[in-house]
Amino acid sequence: MRSIWKGSIAFGLVNVPVKVYTATEDHDIRFHQVHAEDGGRIKYDRVCTVCGKSVQYADIDKAYVDPDGDQVVLTDADFAKLPAAEKHEIPVLEFVPSDQIDPVLFDKSYYLEPDSSTPKAYQLLAATLERIDKTALVHFTLRQKTRLAALRVREGVLVLQTLLWPDEVRAVDFPVLDDAPTPRPQELKMAETLVESMSGDFDPTEYTDEYQIELQKLLDEAIASGTGKVTSAEAAEPAEQADAEVVDLVAALQRSLEASGRREGGAPAAEPKKKPAKKAAAKKAAPRKAASKSTASRTATRKGA
User: Fold this and answer.
1) Which of 11, 47, 223, 279 shows the greatest Cβ crowding within 10 Å of its Cβ?
2) Model confidence over 104-146: pLDDT tens digits?
3) pLDDT tens for residues 207-248?
4) Contacts with 57 (C-beta within 8 Å, 6 or more apart), sequence order
């Protein structure tokens, strides 16, 4: 892994130098666009709508258009004046009970590595977080954007999880639920029995992304057989033409999780087949036994955002 940011955690008067690494990676197979007739790569040109000329990326500024249609253009020099651009510190704001952070707020995860020859302060903070069973709320600035984040420990390593701001979570408003009938006791009992029969300990290794596996198999077979529109590496386009826009494959095969197959009385049935995980952006598969969590609202003040 390669670090994407360096800074330090401000834990009271204790300073903890760290390097930041992206904790997750995308294994989706990526495609680029080609001309269906001859297989040629599709290239994109940045063209100015006023003068009609192609514009290099270095000559492009950012513009904001307000609801009334007025446009404001900002340059790199304007963004450099903002406080967020100068922050290389991760200040601890407070420590809160872990179950008070609604999982819907979690965004991206980052690993923190000690950036010191004597990582005693790093180990102290990690050990403290494990002992108190609380989560540290911090400010984290990356790519000129300040985020509220949760600092916790995973396998002895500090992990930073950025949080969405409260106004970034959509309000729930489904009128159809207002007049929904209340489940009867008998229905609840039957549902709980079904849940119990399907319950078990969460093991992420039991789940696989079958869509990506089958897609890779399809591509490998096509290349090996030489059938279809397969272009050999020798006939590929020169490297300088490889700047076409990369189009992510937006496809997922969603399958229902099979019942665990456990018989009543605790006798396990035959070993179930591994189940494919539901593929969803920025979401993790949830454990089948979910602990009851209380939600406490806290107001976070944006700084430098």
Assistant:
1) 11
2) 999 999 999 999 888 899 999 999 998 888 899 998 888 777 8
3) 888 888 888 888 888 888 876 666 666 554 554 443 333 233
4) 46
The answer to whether the beta carbons of residues 138 and 160 sit under 8 Å apart is yes
Amino acid at 102: D
Length of the chain, please? 305
For the cut 50, the answer to whether the pLDDT of residue 183 exceeds it is: yes
Tens digits of per-residue pLDDT, 273-283? Answer: 444 544 444 44
Contact (Cβ atoms closer than 8 angstroms) between residue 21 and residue 111: yes
Tally of CA atoms within 13 A in the half-sphere of 169 that contains its CB:
12
